[in-house]
Design goal:
Length: about 260
């Protein structure tokens, strides 16, 4: 764990593990992996559930893609997840930076499978096309919650815009589509079922379901702690809907053991 933290510090890289207070970060770091967060550590959106800092965006570092590639190579990773804050201040939302990061990982660690967990790029099809053209193995975009709770949970996002993004990824040849959402923010079982159907209608292949845990007192309160048995049931329903991979448990996060889906 210490060696991973030292490497990331030396290469001046952020991780969503730390920035979003993931409950699994110590396990992942101890296994010699991490989910790298590019485009800075300050998000231009302020979602009610998220622990990432909402503040003035930082200047892009043109060297960051090279440093990410170096980290992946030095860690000897078979699989890497790269995510980001949302950068609504950038014309392309950071899509070109994502694409360059993918290319640098390919150049420095050609055998590594790459998953990118991307923001919605404000629905810009050209921005999404730039990421698709860089040909990662998996493109993930989290729905986070059900349609009815978007105004409260993700007020700066749009449910249909996110679905459309996933549908466009699903239509891309040779790239797997993935999404995730959390329970415990006030959703109903019927709303979850609708979300399953909408994601499958968009062609989504891989799905993660986890428990919402309040990062701070400034974030949305937890409405319910869902039982492990209920998570198992949700997983069974999702598999019956046709998802090819489903991870459903309280501590599941979108990038936790992400390589299992592709394997």
């Amino acid at each position: 764990m210490k060696s991973v933290e030292t490497l990331l510090h030396d290469l001046e890289l952020n991780t969503v593990c730390r920035e979003a207070s993931c409950p699994n970060y110590s396990e992942c770091f101890n296994c010699g992996t991490a989910t790298i967060m590019i485009l800075g550590a300050n998000c231009t959106r302020n979602c009610a559930f998220c622990g990432v800092t909402n503040s003035g965006p930082e200047p892009l570092s043109p060297e960051e893609p090279y440093r990410v590639g170096e980290a992946v190579s030095r860690l000897g990773l078979d699989y890497i997840v790269v995510t980001s804050v949302t950068r609504d201040d950038l014309p392309d939302g950071g899509a070109a930076h994502f694409a360059e990061t993918i290319r640098r990982i390919r150049a420095q660690s050609p055998r590594t499978k790459i998953e990118v967990l991307i923001p919605d790029f404000q629905g810009d099809p050209d921005a999404l096309a730039a990421v698709i053209d860089a040909a990662p193995d998996v493109i993930s975009h989290n729905m986070e919650t059900v349609r009815e709770l978007y105004p409260r949970v993700r007020p700066q996002a749009d449910y249909q815009r996110s679905l459309d993004l996933i549908a466009n990824v699903s239509a891309a040849e040779g790239i797997h589509s993935k999404s995730g959402f959390m329970v415990g923010v006030g959703e109903t079982r019927e709303q979850i079922t609708e979300l399953f159907d909408d994601l499958r209608g968009a062609g989504c292949e891989f799905l993660t379901i986890g428990q919402y845990m309040r990062p701070s007192k400034q974030n949305l309160e937890v409405a319910e702690y869902v039982t492990p048995e209920a998570f198992e049931e949700l997983g069974e329903i999702a598999r019956a809907k046709g998802f090819s991979f489903v991870a459903s448990a309280p501590f599941v996060r979108s990038s936790y053991h992400a390589g299992e889906a592709l394997r």
